[in-house]
């Protein structure tokens, strides 16, 4: 596979140094991209550099994933309008271990082009300040550093020396990997171009070496909003504890038609012909959301698992009316609460269920789901109330703990769309 050609048809190249394609066609090489451990999980914005590494490996090259145990202590100013908060060393170490586990799901660590995870703390930990100035600072002028976009964009409101020096650290990362791992290519987002080319310049001046740089476009949605955020402004994380597989699946399922073709190219390994077929089928029946379903399946399965994908599909069917009591009972408590997040809740004492509580009393006196017993009876008679996805017929029926979901919850549905949860404590 021609790595550059693959990226080109997928729309994944923003900037590239001359001669990169020719060099990669000569032989198998090593290339890297970096991830600073500023949080205990990567989010879907990090999926683009991950995909770069995956395509790089598929083309027969050796991918290096750099987890910045040292640079994570400082914070990259690229794309930031204000100073980052410094993290403790303990937090950085914890975060980097979490990220290493996530990266291991995407790359193959066996064979001739085995992936490798490296940590820049290994080469910075024992480097003193004077040594750093002599080995790195001497080779790049302040004029050169100030010309970088990441610095110019912060010049008016001010940038600390700490963040100003970040590009020197990243430049030395490239130099160290070039010297010790025969790495000749650094990849990243387009906001990283300045930092990456600082590395190519350091290697040219310090080692008379020739290396290469490649960046991909920063991704925004068709409506101009930032990609990777929910409507509520929350990041979509790869860690299932921070973003449940159901929410993760729903994010991809709900992308706009205008964004779906681009996202299929960026976030899946589907071949060009398959993506074009999906586009054709989607245009014939857009209400079926064929592109979004293919996208959601591919990414959810890769990031989480086939089982998580199937559970998310089943949960979606529950929410939109196709679920059963059995499918509800298969949901974990976490998935249940994630699925019905924001649904009104009332808390009822468990002692109410010991002797059995009348359904009518529960939906009126105990929860105020209905303002009056008369209105509740009418809704029951009309078949407008469901309990745990079964029609509730007799309002005098007594409920006991055996009907609870996860031994804690009851799910009521009034009409087609109005849900209500009773939590038993």
Explain what the structure shows.
- This protein is α/β, with parallel strands linked by helices and 425 residues long.
- The chain folds into 3 domains: 214 residues, Rossmann fold, CATH 3.40.50.620; 78 residues, Tyrosyl-Transfer RNA Synthetase (Orthogonal Bundle), CATH 1.10.240.10; 80 residues, RNA-binding S4 domain (Structural Genomics Hypothetical 15.5 Kd Protein In mrcA-pckA Intergenic Region, Chain A).
- The protein is built from 21 helices and 13 strands.
- The protein has a 6-stranded mixed beta sheet with strand order 1-6-5-2-3-4, with helices on both faces. Strands 7-13-12-9-10 form a 5-stranded mixed beta sheet, with no helix packed on it.
- Helix 11 links the parallel strand 5 and strand 6.
- Helix 10 packs across helix 11, helix 12 packs across helix 16 and helix 13 runs parallel beside helix 15.
- The longest helix has 16 residues.
- It is elongated, with a radius of gyration of 27 Å.
- The termini are far apart.
- The mean pLDDT is 90.
Topology of helices and strands:
Layout: H1 3-10, E1 15-16, H2 20-26, E2 30-35, H3 47-58, E3 62-67, H4 89-103, E4 116-119, H5 121-124, H6 129-135, H7 142-146, H8 149-152, H9 161-164, H10 166-181, E5 183-189, H11 193-207, E6 212-216, H12 245-253, H13 260-267, H14 272-284, H15 290-303, H16 306-319, H17 325-329, H18 333-339, E7 345-348, H19 351-354, E8 357-358, H20 359-366, H21 373-381, E9 385-387, E10 390-391, E11 398-399, E12 409-414, E13 418-424
Parallel strand pairs: 2-3, 2-5, 3-4, 5-6, 7-13
Antiparallel strand pairs: 1-6, 8-11, 9-10, 9-12, 12-13
């Amino acid at each position: 596979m021609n790595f550059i050609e693959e990226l080109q048809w997928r729309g994944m190249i923003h900037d590239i140094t001359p001669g990169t394609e020719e060099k990669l066609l000569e032989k198998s090489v090593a290339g890297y991209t970096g991830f600073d451990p500023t949080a205990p999980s990567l989010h879907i914005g990090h999926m683009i550099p991950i995909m770069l590494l995956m395509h790089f490996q598929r083309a027969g090259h050796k991918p290096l994933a750099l987890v910045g145990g040292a640079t994570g202590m400082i914070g990259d100013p690229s794309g930031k309008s204000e100073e980052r908060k410094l993290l403790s060393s303990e937090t950085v170490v914890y975060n980097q271990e979490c990220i290493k586990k996530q990266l291991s799901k995407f790359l193959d660590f066996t064979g001739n082009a085995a992936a490798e995870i490296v940590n820049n703390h290994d080469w910075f930990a024992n480097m003193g300040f004077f040594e750093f100035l002599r080995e790195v600072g001497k080779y790049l002028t302040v004029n050169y550093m100030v010309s970088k976009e990441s610095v110019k964009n912060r010049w008016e409101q001010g940038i600390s020396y700490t963040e100003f020096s970040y590009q020197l650290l990243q430049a030395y990362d490239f130099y160290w990997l070039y010297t010790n791992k025969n790495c000749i290519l650094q990849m990243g987002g387009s906001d990283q171009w300045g930092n990456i080319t600082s590395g190519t310049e350091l290697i040219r001046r310090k080692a008379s070496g020739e290396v290469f740089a490649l960046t991909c476009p920063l991704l925004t949605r068709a409506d101009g909003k930032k990609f990777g955020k929910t409507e509520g402004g929350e990041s979509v994380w790869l860690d299932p504890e921070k973003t449940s597989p159901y929410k993760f699946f729903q994010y991809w399922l709900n992308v706009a038609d205008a964004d779906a073709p681009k996202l299929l190219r960026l976030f899946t390994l589907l071949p060009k012909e398959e993506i074009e077929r999906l586009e054709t089928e989607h245009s014939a029946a857009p209400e079926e959301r064929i592109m979004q379903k293919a996208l959601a399946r591919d990414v959810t399965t890769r990031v989480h698992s086939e089982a998580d994908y199937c559970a998310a599909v089943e949960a979606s069917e529950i929410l939109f009316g196709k679920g059963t009591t059995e499918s509800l009972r298969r949901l974990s408590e976490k998935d249940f609460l994630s699925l019905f997040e924001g649904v009104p809740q009332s808390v009822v004492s468990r002692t109410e269920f010991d002797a059995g509580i009348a359904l009518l009393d529960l939906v009126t006196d105990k929860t105020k789901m209905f303002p009056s017993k008369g209105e509740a009876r009418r809704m029951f008679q009309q078949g407008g109330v469901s309990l745990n996805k079964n029609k509730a017929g007799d309002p005098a029926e007594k409920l006991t703990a055996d009907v609870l979901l996860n031994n804690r919850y009851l799910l009521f549905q009034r009409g087609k769309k109005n849900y209500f949860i009773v939590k038993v404590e």
